[in-house]
Amino acid sequence: MRLSFADEMLLRNGCSGVTGLAAVFTGEPPSLEEVRRRVAERWTAMPRLNQVLHFTPGADGDGRHAHWAVPGPFHPEEHVLDAHCELHELWARLVNRPLPGGVPLWRLFLVPGGSAGGFALALVAQHVLMDGHSLTVALRVLMDGAGPVRTTGPVPRPRVPLAVVARELKALTSPGQILPLPSPDQAEPSVAVRLLPVPTLRAAGRHPEGTRGATPNELLTSAVAGALRSRFGPPKDWPSARPVYACVPCDLRTRENQDELGNAVTAVRVALPLGLADPVARLRACQEALRAVPERAGVHAAVLFPLAESVRRTAPWAGARLTGRGGRPSYMATVTTTVKWRARSTTFQGRELVHMAGLPPLSRPGGAGFLLMQTPGACALTAVCHLLPGSADRLADGVAQEIDTLARTAEPGRHAGHATAYRPGR
Q1: 252, 38, 292: which is closest to 132 by C-alpha?
Q2: pLDDT at 425
């Protein structure tokens, strides 16, 4: 089976490509065998989780051709493992370490909760195998009383005017710049997780007054812009006058294929409003920019992806160039992702879900990723950076501070809660 264009783009972007999602529960942890039995029961029949990535000699950019194979079902003993460390340590250990091949590129870890008690189930995968939505679907299927995934056929795409396509192509090819870094040799991966008070997030979203307010995506993107301005200064302090782009992932699934596993996602580039000093003005600018994201993502799905597939089939060397471009930090200095847990069930073998925390993929030196994971009673922000040591902590604190400032502006005089550094089981 051929890789899709999205799969191959994620395979060839020059990054480690590990992504993850952890569900944190209260109570005594189950045994590893209990988890393996649940995984075998619920996941064995899901084709994507049984696919193995194979390489053969080819005529593409690096002389290798990648394809999917299904030699047989996965073995829970190989894929469901004890973490032997707490969640923040697991994220730091895995973020820059690709999973070994020869078997399907995912692992599920049973993670101890440390002194706070509880436990976590942490699913990690190579992004070439699964996107963030796929991780949520897979974990949802493990929950008590969960129904099976629904599989469907291809989803039809609408016609798109040529002028709209041309406008999006121009947006995709506009030059940008990386996050300030003295030298790529000084960059190292870092990960930070912050638990954000739900009332603070809700209050921050009440901008502008008298409107629908800000969506979590708009709020996160503007908060990242504020954190970058606070950390690196206004545009005049940056190495060049080029825009700093955030890539906003957009799920291309519809009601007809919402349980599809794999990579049914694109990313739309949005210039961050670093020149605006006022947090509310930055939020409004991001709201205006992100309002066009669904339409722009539709152009990718209906025109650009099929066109890229055609180029890749007829001229593999050109396809390799196309797929390698997207991982450059100058193309996407940051990635801002929001995910909402929509499953009805919130228990695993009777243990109650407390919150979830994601692991965005690591970028090349000069880039950063931010993921806001929402569950009914909690929000967790994860920052992943490939910058100077400790940058993830500083940027995560900056994003949390920006959200806190917006909350105070929306509700003057009201004390907003503060983000807390992640502790397992909280």
Answers
A1: 252
A2: 45
Tokens of 101: 């091949």
pTM of the predicted structure, to 2 decimals: 0.92
What is the three-class DSSP state of 159?
coil
Residue 230 in tokens: 């606070």
Strand order from edge to edge, sheet including 334-340: 265-271, 245-251, 334-340, 368-375, 378-387, 188-196, 420-421
DSSP string, 35-52: HHHHHHHHHTT-GGGG-E
Write down the number of H helices and E strands in the chain: 13, 15
Q: Which residues pair with 347 in a beta bridge?
A: 352
Question: Pairing between strand 378-387 and 188-196?
Answer: antiparallel
pLDDT tens column, 277-295? 999 999 999 999 999 999 9
Q: What is the mean pLDDT of residues 237-264?
A: 91
Give the contacts of 249 (CB within 8 A, at least 6 positions apart). Answer: 131, 132, 265, 266, 267, 335, 337
DSSP states along 181-230: -S-GGG-EEEEEEEEEPHHHHHHHT--STTSS---HHHHHHHHHHHHHHH
Q: Residue 209 and residue 410: Cα distance in Å, rounded?
A: 8
338-348 pLDDT tens trace: 999 988 888 99
The DSSP symbol for 302 reads I
* CA 374 – CA 342 distance, rounded (Å): 9
pLDDT at residue 169, rounded to an integer: 87
Q: What is the pLDDT of residue 107?
A: 98
Peptide bond preceding 29: is omega within 30 degrees of 0, i.e. cis? no
Cα separation, 40 vs 244, in Å, equals 45
Is the pLDDT confidence value at 386 over 50? yes
